[in-house]
Amino acid sequence: MLYIPSHTRSTPYFVGIFAAYVYRYLKLDKPKFRFPYSKTLLTILIAVYPLFLMTIQVFYVREYNLWLSVIYMFMYRITFAIIVSIFIIICAINGLFKG
């Protein structure tokens, strides 16, 4: 794997900031809004996530390619941040997993 310096890892941070904006918008401007089929959406997210994690196999099958590694790490972090953000927003807006 290619080492990626810490200053280049800001994309998940920005995805999280955008997710916080979406959450705040839905909570304040549309307080009655609920996601339809929220449990189905969460089930799909939970089912897709392990498949997403298995994409690392591409580095064991092929010869190492620098650009493939760079693109993979960029897309992996953004996709991971989006999956986690969607999960958190759906749970928070619909009131699932209350403690």
From TrEMBL:
It comes from Sipha flava (yellow sugarcane aphid). It comes from the Eukaryota. This is Transmembrane protein. The chain crosses the membrane at residues 12-28, 40-62, 74-97. Keywords: Membrane, Transmembrane, Transmembrane helix.
